[in-house]
Amino acid sequence: MSGPRLDHVVIAVSDWERSNAFYARVCGAELVRLDEPPPTRWRYRFGDQQLNVHGPGMEPVPEAARPAVPGGADVCLQWPGPIAGALEHLEREGVPVELGPVPRNGAQGPGLSVYVRDPDGSLVEFISYAEPPA
Known about the structure:
There is one protein chain. This protein is mainly beta. It has a single domain, classed as 2,3-Dihydroxybiphenyl 1,2-Dioxygenase, domain 1, CATH 3.10.180.10. Helix content is 15%, strand content 38%. The protein is built from two helices and eight strands. The chain has helices at residues 16-25, 83-92; strands spanning 8-12, 30-34, 41-46, 49-54, 74-79, 99-106, 109-117, 123-128. The chain has a four-stranded mixed sheet with strand order 1-4-3-2, with helices on one face. A hairpin with a 2-residue loop joins strand 3 (41-46) and strand 4. The radius of gyration is 16 Å and the shape is globular.
């Protein structure tokens, strides 16, 4: 039986420029700019999935009963190779690793993960399925 697939989730940011730079540079997101209706809004696209972003100047309708707030997200992105590659990438970008590598179970089963923070303090996990956890 097939059912719905995840299309997007919403995060909130406090500064468009700072967050756009982080999600593009560190997370590999394609920045999608929406200018209609004003103000300018952004989406962070990862292939056929994306993060919709609530940020400065927006008044989203409708909204969750407890709307997303900057620093309140916990998202996981799949790293395309061994977790060592994620660690090297994060070091090159000057992003401190908060935890990891540690074994975790994601949507595809067991993997290895590292955790960092976005500029607002939201938790961003990179999980790799390329090698089995020890």
